[in-house]
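Why do we bother with holo predictions? Because pocket geometry can differ from the apo form. Keep that in mind while you read this record for adenosine-5'-diphosphate.
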Amino acid sequence: MEPFHLLIDGQMTPGSMTMDIVNPATGKVLAECPRADAQQLNDAVAAAKRAFPAWAKLTYAARRTMIHAIADALAARLEEFASLLTSEQGKPLHEATKEMYGSVAILKMLSNLELEDEVLKDTKTEKVIRHRTPLGVVAAITPWNNPMTLLMVKITSALVSGNTVVAKPAPTTPLTNLRFAEICNAHLPPGVLNMIADANDLGPLLTSHLDIAKISFTGSTITGKKILQSTADSLKRLTLELGGNDAAIVLDDADVKSVAPKLFAGAMLNAGQVCLAIKRVYVHESQYDEFCDELARLADAAIVDDGAKQGTQIGPLQNKMQYDKVRTLIEETRSQGTIIAGGTYPDGAGYFIRPTIVRDIDDNARLVREEQFGPVLPVLSYTTIDDVIERANATEYGLGGTVWSADSDRALAVARQIDSGTVWINTHMMLHPDVPAGGAKQSGMGVELGREGLAEHTQSHIIYVLK
Ligand code: ADP
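The structure, written out:
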């Protein structure tokens, strides 16, 4: 494999240190990765700061042209990137390929948006205009579950609206991002996008850096809260996309054979390591047994293997820490519910866990209350709609949720009462670059995507003109 570099001030730069990146399907070292020190982080921020005035002065159209060129160059290397993504992240190649198509689409569609001046008032005597100005240097901090698409959302929103960026991928999945930085470097002026990699040690330095104007973060709620605290000194702007414990509510008229596979896919996508994955399923008591049996059948039939192998449906957990966490949760669940599928760990050095379905579990069990972020799904029974809505909302999270029914009006009435940023009816994980998404309660602050997402990368600048 060609060596990887950091991107600082238009130079592909070796790290001051290196670290090994592991393929989670084999447990073996996949590549050596550069690791930045504090000085390199400071250099990256300084470069972004220097590049900001000229970048901010360009038109949206000029910035868009460069971002589209990056998208085209990425599209031309889609297979190479998908394969590298599978090797470092673990997800099956078909999911990695989808993530790469999504990345190209985000770069293009999100950069097609533009925040024009708005006239807020226009009378005989005065005119009031809202003009939006970019903020400065944006820190883009991303997790290891969807390394490419999440980076694309952050950098496209920041760059097209006139900000410069220092990006920091998660320590276990930096490779696709660093390879992508090479493409960006061929199309952007020096310093506009910088990328460093760390061993989970540079985040606090970046988020407290006085020359960072905004932090765009996706990751766990615990880390999100730490970041929020670190912004207080300089009142940095902040977008946080955090954890979720999304409920799927299945109404009593749902068709078991067609809905169960969608629930299963929504829970097991990326081995359950998706903030918006289905984390709890509530089924009406009249259909409880049938749904449990069907979900268990799907789990038993699922092919769990190295994502690089054809036919694999579920890959390994992304890293050892997450694997250990999910295993502990499953072991704890044995005494709190009935495991009707999975609950086993295939032999070998990879971080594999068979998809696990748990029934007859109490709402107070940790598997129901906390975000499992792994291939383990609790299935719960309910009697009345009011009861299930209350239970679905009884969580500090509020990211997403789904409602399943043959009657979409009935489902809509339920969806309106779910306390979350997004709800899907009879589908899951549809996200459009031009539609905003964000979390309620402790699932986040602010939104990403859409014009609203772009607006969060700008200062609202009001100009009064006396006629
Ligand atoms: P996880 O616990 O699953 O690894 P995190 O939310 O901690 O997820 O990590 C998401 C991203 O946040 C990673 O890029 C990680 O390096 C970074 N990070 C971790 N701790 C901090 C911190 N205190 N400040 C800023 N970024 C951090």
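The CA atoms of residues 208 and 385 lie 46 Å apart.
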